[in-house]
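Record type: ASSEMBLY
Status: queued
Input:
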Amino acid sequence: SQQGEEDPQALSIQEGENATMNCSYKTSINNLQWYRQNSGRGLVHLILIRSNEREKHSGRLRVTLDTSKKSSSLLITASRAADTASYFCATDEGLNTGFQKLVFGTGTRLLVSP
Amino acid sequence: NAGVTQTPKFQVLKTGQSMTLQCAQDMNHEYMSWYRQDPGMGLRLIHYSVGAGITDQGEVPNGYNVSRSTTEDFPLRLLSAAPSQTSVYFCASSYGTTQPQHFGDGTRLSIL
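Status: finished
Output:
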């Protein structure tokens, strides 16, 4: 099952601009996570926001969560060329074993040009 | 402190061959998972483990086996490779099921 869907699929901006990516999901969640993937590398965890939180900051990252709309957004402020990567949201989905698996979206490809 | 280490980084197999993808972590994480990443489909869970000796199936387990004899290692076995298993495989580990996942850099597997 695919829960999170990111929007847009691709985003191209200039250095210094802000980048906003959105994620929508389908079922109730305990938390939502954002990951970054540089080309040819594994995913790197950026930020986790719990269902009872509405906003969270980490450096130049700002994440919001609206559980009533089942959506989240990731804002990267003052973007840099090094921010060029794919960004994925992931939500937890309970299995009957009690294990909370992460369900990933298809990602947003961000290109930041110098 | 290497984190999550996956070997090999690249592999080409012929249909019907078998092989084992290795995954090791040095963070003493109880939870380990295997995902495959295909274009346009995000990551899908293959198998997971909540501790040594305990494994279970994820979303797309067919054609794969796993075992967890130690906390550190979680190998993924392809029993009889098929072209549909051409993908990038990622291993991940974490302290808990709702904690951030730590990923390896992946194994790029092509089945001819």
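Annotation: Chain B has a mean pLDDT of 94.
Annotation: Chain B touches chain A through 27 residues (CB under 8 Å).
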